[in-house]
Amino acid sequence: MENVSTNGVLTHLSQLEVRARSPGGPETQRSRVKELRAEAEELRGLREQLKAEIRALKDPCFRQHLQELRSSADPRPSEDPPLLQMMCRQLDLKDLLHGHHLIGGLDAVQTRQGRAVCVSLQTTYEGVFLETFNLELELKPRVRIGRHNIPPFVPLQSLAEQSRLQTDPGAFLSTLSQHLNAFVGRRRQLQLVKEQHASVEVMESNLPCSILVLLFTAQTEKAAVLCTLEYSDHGSRLPGRVVLDCEDKQLLKSPEWRSCCATLMKTPVHRALARMKKSSLIL
Question: Which residues neighbour 70 within 8 Å (Cβ) at sequence distance 6 or greater?
Answer without folding.
Answer: 88, 91
